[in-house]
Amino acid sequence: MTQDLLRQTLWFDPAELLIGGHWRPCDRHLPVENPSTGQIIGQIARADAATVDEAVTAARTALAGDWGRLGAAERGRILARIGRIVSDRAEALAVLESLDVGKPLAQARADALALARYMEFYAGAADKVMGHTIPYQHGYTAYTLHEPHGVTAHIVPWNYPMQIIGRSVGAALAMGNAAVLKPAEEASLTALAFARIAVEAGLPAGALNVIPGLGEEAGAALAAHPGVNHISFTGSVGVGIRIQSAAARNVVPVTLELGGKSPQLVFADADLDRALPFLVNAGVQNAGQTCSASARILVERSRHAEVVERMAARYSRLRVGPALADLDLGPLISARQKALVEGYMALAGDLSVAATGTIEADAPPGGHYVAPRLLADVRPDHRLAQEEIFGPAQVIIPFDDEDEAVAIANGTDYGLVAAVWSENGARQLRLARALRAGQVYLNNYGAGGGVELPFGGTGKSGHGREKGFEALYGFSTLKTIAAWHG
Ligand code: NAD
After folding, report:
1. Which of 42, 99, 343, 377 is the S-S candidate for 32 at Cβ 3.0 to 4.6 Å?
2. Looking at the structure, do residues 369 and 425 belong to the same domain, yes or no?
């Protein structure tokens, strides 16, 4: 049945890859698995090092041709057209994503609309990246220009393909780079659909090349390619280290968007009625497979029991089932991810399990379902409170005062995002500074994901910023021109 749905939804052949404006078949293939059933529902291309080389060459050719000669406003118009088509096809894109990554339909729909919004945002921003004129010595006029890096590589994970493509490819194209996109082997369908839309919208040949394939094969070849001028990588810390090493060998800049173990700090004066949905949703959205998931809930001791009880009540109502059933949680992406998460859950041992959600009785047995789990009273140094699980598990940790809360919050290798729940304005401002994170939320979590808000990590969560206007600086290099005219 899902195969029929896939056939109805796909308006293109997913086994082809895009190089230099041409859709081409590939000799080798990778299977497409539906995580909700475990069934193989199609196949995608498996690019190798030679294909990567062709894609990089095609991108270079585009820079020297039509794409490189376009003005910023025209690049923006093309992005705007892409955004409009994405928005018109949001439902089909959502179904594709649900089938490919197991994401509940409403969450996949939100990703498709976010992709459209990224295109809209970067369309408007493309012709507004301005340099400076610099007051300098008599006889000189000096100014700066933001220029594209050239060929940008985009290596993206499977958990939010559309959003991550939007924020990195969108900003790169707005600045006039030519992009080579290597989607995750587990989730390439919406990347391919996006590329079809981009071609339809009039993006010149070679400005975007899409080469699905394995990480250690196509991904590694792309990261190491000497023709690449910038690498944007979103994924795990281990692979991020390899990417940065490869970039170092070619002396090219790299943006690393890696993992997290993000805390929410709940003080005794917090508005718990407002906080509660955020506390839970931030842990279970996309079945916890979110870089900015909130895996640690830190609660001032006087309200610890109350928060445990109220979060547990919500957990016990959470339902897990097939993506198209659109429940609270879908399956995890793969059997491998399920085994990893279950390994972590086994570490809980005699920790107090405050609550679990429920897997629907009729969920297909081949699907990779894991019931969400809430653990109370966890020590901050426990592995479950330190390591990224990337599944639906949250720990609750009590604290006694603000200093201790900050020490615990900052006490992991990561630093992606953090939230403070308190009605005390001075404390909000103190903690906004004290917390080690790329984004801090005061009395909210995630701020609705805003495409306008620069995003990125500190520590092992990575470096560089994507999203918002800031990303345009990351996807460009600054040139200073000094003219002597006497
Ligand atoms: P992953 O690192 O295994 O894979 C990410 C991408 O890298 C995939 O396209 C993969 O094919 C490729 N890859 C794998 N090995 C490679 C290699 N040797 N050389 C080049 N490329 C290679 O990560 P994942 O399991 O797909 O994603 C989960 C991780 O991503 C989590 O740690 C999560 O926190 C992180 N993530 C971070 C953000 C963020 O914005 N900070 C967003 C989403 C996911």
Report:
1. 42
2. yes
